[in-house]
Fold this protein.
Amino acid sequence: MSRTAEELLQFDRLLEILARFTTCGPGRRAVAALAPHPDREALEAEFALVREAIAYLRAGEDLGFGALADTEGWLKRLGVPSAVLGSGELLDAASLLDTATGLKAVFRSEAAKYPRLAERAASLGDFRSLAATIRRAILPNGEISDNASPELKRLRGVAAQTREKIQQSLQSILRARGETAGEDYVTLRNDRFVIPVRASDRRAVPGVVHGASATGQTVFVEPLATIDMNNRLVQLAEDEAVEIARILTELTERLRLERGPLAFAAATVAELDSVFARARFAREFDATLPEFSVGSALFLEAARNPVLEDTLRRQERSAVPVSLSLGGESVDSGTVMVISGPNTGGKTVALKTVGLAALSGLSGIPVTAARAELPLFDRVLADIGDEQSITADLSTFSAHMLNLKRMLETATGRTLVLVDEMGTGTAPEEGAALAVALLEEFRTRRSLTLATTHHDRLKAYASTTPGIVNAAVEFDEVNLRPTYRLLVGVPGVSSGIEIARRLGLPGEVVERARAGLSPETREARGLIAYLHRSRDEVEDIKRQAREELERLEAERRALQTEWVERQRKRLAELEKRFDAMLKQLQGDVARLTAEIADRKERALAEKQGARRLGKIGASARDEADAAVLEHLAASQSDLGVTAEAAGRPVAPEQLVEGARVRVRGMKQPVIFRRKDGRSAEVEAGPLRMKVALSDILGIEEPGAAASATVGPASRGVTVHARPTEEPSAEEINVIGCTVEEATRRVDKFLDDAALASLPSIRIVHGHGTGALRRGLAEFLAAHPLVEGIHAEAEDRGGTAITIVELRG
């Protein structure tokens, strides 16, 4: 009988490796039960748990069940109605109860970080009371505690008193006979207390003989005085055994009532131990969680065979990874890969690596690869190794043909087919023809197929047939040894003659073999060698280009960092110089103002000087900031400081004042203010600058245009007051202004009035809530040009108008 794909691919060895990472018997059985299946929902749920377990381990935590005794035996016995668990089995059950309780506690506060693990833990029953009962009844050494029941405690107390009385009675007999009394002279025979008596003095001690010493010179006698007490002690022991049996039965029945939740708890612990074993395996073997493709796409990046890697690690060697891509939704996509190359070059290892990766993913086991995308195969079929059977009267070729026949009977578009050394075992022409026909059949069914071969005809077939991909295991022609690398896209060379020469075959034999090759074979070998050299050259060019790109990128980053630091220092220096110039200007203004003798004119000059100096400073800062911003924006794109993607300019009619817009060359959105021909004014914090309309690439948050909503007309007449834009020489109207706006306008008006030598002015502010009048009064009271303030006469406006008397 042919072996299954799991046996051929050593899936059982993978499970043995995985079992090393478990911590309890149920977990080991759960690992051993892992098997491939195509249920997407179940597999994704399993890998979601493994992903959380990996995160748990990365956080520096671990979850083990080393204190859990095996649950299989006692759980099975609970299913037998008349079975009573022994004290040891009850302690084993208590270990499961304690484990379930601890598991619930571990994840109670971790539900947000590990929701699926926490859900599993929360589903366990509450066994604290039952666990406490068992622990109270049974001591850690398996003995039944005195506190198991009041009756047991009473019986043991009476038995202890009875034993003490028996010993006292026996010691008194010994003393009466002149013997040295002591515990060493009181012993047990047949569960009854006796004393040693010399055989010659047997008649001196009436009682029952329970044995003699080896020499026969001493007999052990139970005196008549203690027979009743010994009988009582035996009866108490029997009563104690009955009570213990009752206690064990009662505890067993309590467990039996919880048999369902207990079995679920054991299964959950086994599952979680299996999950964490897979997480530890992923960490130890640098494995990845596979993705499952919707169609038939198979992609493996740097995949390794974990069974081979485990063996090589013991030899302090490492496995060579395999990368390949096969299948897909396109009709023309390759579904068959023909792998060729020398013997011992790694063709079979490549086949087993892909097959074991597929079985791992379908079994919920992380795949030892950098990345893995797998189809949901309905089955994995394999024909690998020598299947010759003498007992079944089968040759190697016949055994392979029977295997391939069975594979054809079950292969579908969702099957992975692995065939090693296709077409061997018969005449080369016949074997190659059969191999081509079989591969064509698998290609027609769109079964993902990997086949190894030495036949040149299969290599040519793969090179000229759509949907079939050539691949080669690399061979170092210089050192005459395999590299075990899989090269997809080129056929391999068998290199049998070169290997024979390396192994020491006589030179004349090797040369005769070379001369015997057909011209077509030599031509094909030369072409394949050329393809390999071309591939190596392309790979070398790609490597050099990648290294050069990395070097240029590193230089660009260094230049960028240097430029940013230089600009930062330059801006800091400019800021320092700007502040110094502003302070100097302020000092000059202060000196000039101090030279004015007239107090009124000096106060006016101070006020106007401070205001104009502020305007000059603000204007200068705005111009400097705008120039800096424009300079930085123009320089950033050259140095790659920003990675702003190119976009289409925004239509000018879409731009609304206050909108947040994205500008080419600027990292952050800025505020749009207004259009000016083909340019626009934008604002970034305190900075304003002009940019081309074509450089505005998008609107992030359109600003709402100012709008006024006109409500329904009210009855009577409504009067709208507006601040006077051009005040008269002696009066200013600030109705409708805020206190801040009104004080600013009044301040300027006072300066103009003082320059005009007016004795007083009128401020029309209205009644309203009185806040504007009070705010102005507070401002005017501290003003250097104001002598005093008072309300207007009642017939001319009253408190709605403030009269300001100016200093003379």
The chain has a mean pLDDT of 80. The first helix runs from residue 5 to 8.
